[in-house]
Amino acid sequence: MTERAASKTALGVTAVRVVHQLVDGEPKILADPIAPRLLSGDAVRLLEEHIGRAQDPEARALRARVVLRSRFAEDRLKAAVLRGVRQCVMLGAGFDTFAYRQPDWARALRLYEVDHAATQAEKRDRLSAAGVVLPPNLEFVAIDFEKVSLDEGLRASSLDFGRPAFFSCLGVFVYLSREAVDAVFRLVASFPAGSEIAFTFASRQAERSALAHRVQRAGEPWRTFLDAAGLQRDLPALGFREVSILDPAQAERIYFRGRDDGLAAPATAGVAAAIVG
Fold first, then answer.
1. What is the pTM of this model?
2. pLDDT digits (tens, 9 = 90+) for 6-19
C-alpha cells in the first residue's frame, strides 16, 4: 500500500495565513508571526501565487474564513481556560501555529496536535529548519481518522479522559466521512461537563464552489456537509448543552467592523462551538 503523503491543503492554508500578515491592514484578525517561517521551497512559489491574487474577491473571502476560524477557536479556548480547562486537543492540526506562539494564558495547558503522521513529519521538519523550538507543553499524536478511531488514538497519548478538555477541529470535518464526523462529536461529548469543541463546517451549497473543485483536483475531495439547523438539533441530543453558531452578522460586528482593507466577514456561517453539559 502506498504511504499517504502530507496534506496539500494544510500547506495552502498556511500560505493564506501568511498573506493575511503581509497584505491586510491592522489590526490583524489573526496575528501569526510563525506561519511565514514554515514556508520554503515550493511553498514560497505557492505563497507568491496567493499574493498575486490576494485582492481577488474570492481570495479575500477565503482568507477571511481561514483567519476567522482560528481566531474564533483561540478566543473560545481562552474562555475555556478561564473556567478551568487545562487540556487542548487540536484535531487535524495541520500547520497550525498556536502552540509555537502561545500567549501567557495558555502556558498551563497541555496541548495535543493530532494529525496524520506524514503531515506531522513535514511540519516538524519545517519547524526545525526554521529554528522554532517545540514547547514543553506540546504532544504530537499521530492518527489517521479513517483507519484508527479517535478514541483509540487519543488513549495512546497522555490525555486525561477524566478531566475537561477543549477540542478544535478546523477545516477537517468536510474531508471526513459522516461516520467519522459523528464519532468525533460522540468522543467530545463523552468528556466531563465543561469540555468544548470549536469546529468548522460546510453546507451542501458549498459543494459547488470553486474552492471545492480545486481541492478535489488536488486529491482531497470534500465529503461531509452540515448545516446550522441540523447542528442545533443534533448536538444537544449527544450531550452538548450549548451550541453556538457564529453567523455573518456576529462575525462582522466582533471581528471585522471598521476595516478598510476589503476584508469582510464570510457571507455564510461556517464556524461553531459546542459545550458539553
1. 0.91
2. 567 788 899 999 99
